[in-house]
Amino acid sequence: MTHSPRRLLQLLPLALAIALACGPAAAERRSLSQDWLFGAGELAGAEQPGFDDSGWRRVVVPHDFGIMDRPDGTPPFDAKAVGGQDAGYLPGGIGWYRRHMKLDAADAARVLRLQFEAVYMDADIWLNGTHVARHRYGYTAFGVDLTGKVKAGDNVIAVRVNHVDPSSRWYAGSGLIRPVTLEVLDPVHIAPDSVFVSTRSATADRGEVEARATVSNRAARPVRVEVTSQVVGADGATVATARQAMTVAARGSADIAQGLAVAQPKLWSPDAPNLYTLVQEVRVDGVVKDVRRTRFGIRTLTVDAQNGLRVNGRRYDLRGGNIHHDNYMLGAAGAPDADARKVALMKAAGYNAIRSAHNPASQATLDAADELGMLVIDEAFDMWRKEKRAADYARFFDANWQQDIDSLVVSGRNHPSVVMWSVGNEIPEQGSKEGAAIARQLKERIRRLDTTRPVTQGVNMDGPDNAVQFAELDVAGYNYRVHLFEKEHGTHPQRVMYTSESTSKDAFRYWDPVGRMPWVIGDFVWTAVDYIGETGIGWMGYTKDWKQLGPYPWNLAYSGEIDTTGRKRPAAYYRQVLWGTGIDPVAAFVEQPAGTADLPDRELFAEHPELDWSLHDLHPSWTWTGQEGRPLKVVVYSEFPEVELFLDGRSLGRRSVGRATEYKADYSVTYAPGRLLAVGYRDGKAAGQWELRTAGAPAAVQVQVDRATVRANGEDLAYVTVELVDANGTPVYARADDRRFTVTVRGAGTLAGAGNGNPMDASSLQSGVRTTFHGRLVAVVRAGLQAGPIDVTLATDGLPVGRVRVDAVSSSTR
Ligand code: GAL
């Protein structure tokens, strides 16, 4: 049967009515990562659909406009930036995003929810010129209901971001910093954020899971629905099913709670991060209206002062690190691959726990933690009512804390990795009556949505004041207070304690009580991964008059045990040894000789060693030109009970290493170029070694990429690492040998950023022109939307060009 165009038009309303009545087969979640337009500054009328945005820049979301080069190509760092040292001398400000969204008539008639995972901060949202939402906190997810407000054809979403400086004690970034998605739903659907899947009990034989959700009916008449919940294993097999039928009132909703029993469940734990997917289907008259997939893990969780934190009955001491949310060369843009990489770097360095300082973690962070087996403390706030910075979230706390706590919990509660909720960090109200009352309110609010996880807070006070705060919490987080653990256990024997923040250089002192004191469940160093902002805290690089810490061009904290490019610094190796991870069971580093500052101002540090937020000035290098014949201090970290150091085969002595020596041995070695070798012995036999070789001049460029293929989805990232090596392939580390590179990306991808980890290098992160730091540089390549090869070249004067190829493959084939 054929119809004339005219007849087709006549049929259209009927088709629409049928589409509305039946709905398409299933709900959809569409990524809105592409095709955003960005305009800087206050732009009058930019919310209007007809506004001329043709000159705006096309950007991929997640996006941070604070890190972008200025229109004239100069880098964004500015000695006079209002956020100053806190913000890494980067600006906040106002920015606009617009996205044209074409909808066909059928989609325009459906239930639509625009989902922002985080917009930093104080965002206003318009649809086709009509104001539809405002959301203040920069780290929490929120949905905007667009149902019935869109039209068939072009719709314009406009977002105004109002990041007033100073808003934060670290670099927060600005804009659509986390993913944006559009949910396209039938009038009968599972309410977004309503799903909660939890483990009631779990043994090797049986896991009892409870799946809760709310079915929403936006239609004008009641519907009879059938909800089927299935637990699907990683192999795709369904291992448990539950069905429930019920009536949902017109324009109403109904809650369901289904019990599902899984025989011989593959339990989730840090060692075996097994995951399942809960597939919830809603049917009306046998027709599927919604399918919602929620990944989860089957695991139990308990915490007490006798047994510590137990997952499935087994104690896990928290080998933790704090992280901030920025991704260095991408700024605060929470690109999922970048967030996941940070988690993977930590896991590979032996950490098993993350404290998301001091804001809710992104979904990508939690997904990676679920997959890799990391335990997460998901934190709500850095301040409550009393501000820490003039324009921070304290302005909004009273009006918004409930919705922000709700968002934290619903976003995190299906992730097995999340083991605690933290209501705050070093909150000015802590220890007062008001502080206790707010903590109680926050905790009660959390309990409405999740009773399965303990609530904690990072507190930096001694007793007895801290007792006022800890009385409201399930678990006590101590910032920099290791000296209290013994004493306060005496007065509060049931208190579960951990170090929510510690200094890297005191790693031994902070880790030592864990395990020896059963009530101390772990230690989170400040920080595991370096970050933008709080410049110079890991170096104490002051101006000569001591007035300013980390003055411009400083832009990184330099406190991370893993640097911003992903390179482990000596502190990370020490921690691996303290934790007995076996990853690098013996490792040796050399102290920077006095008077040869690796970074300027280091000499000043000697006057205030107690302030340092990083380990001493140690380097993985035996290239110290100019130091010939002088003694250098070499530190060997070892899990083995004995170590021996050799220079060019000549023994410099054997040492016993253990708790008494804090798992390290110091040597003084007269410098001569050559090969420094540390050997670890167990039972008198060589069991591991570590080598440092003197490097010659840079002779080649070594290039590595972290993956061979990316999906051509406009979002996937590949990290390309460039290292200078000498003619023998020895890494070149000396600052004097650093080289300026030009990174070029051609083909099916683009350069998303490049950085070197040098805390004082305030040059562009986007231009691709960047100097190595200690012989190394990392470039980030983003897949485009077309499949094909991506060619990356890394060129520097006088050396053969470094090259690497990544293949962008169509999303379905990877
Ligand atoms: C702590 C604070 C962290 C960070 C750290 C290093 O007191 O909680 O957010 O500022 O100091 O400066």
From TrEMBL:
The keyword Hydrolase applies. Residues 309-460 form the Glycoside hydrolase family 2 catalytic domain. PROSITE patterns: PROKAR_LIPOPROTEIN (PS51257). Residues 188-299 form the Glycoside hydrolase family 2 immunoglobulin-like beta-sandwich domain. Residues 1-27 form the signal peptide. GO terms for biological process: carbohydrate metabolic process. One of its GO terms (molecular function) is hydrolase activity, hydrolyzing O-glycosyl compounds. Keywords: Glycosidase, Hydrolase, Signal. Residues 629-686 form the DUF4982 domain. Residues 702-803 form the Glycoside hydrolase family domain. Residues 93-167 form the Glycosyl hydrolases family 2 sugar binding domain. Belongs to the glycosyl hydrolase 2 family. This is Beta-galactosidase.
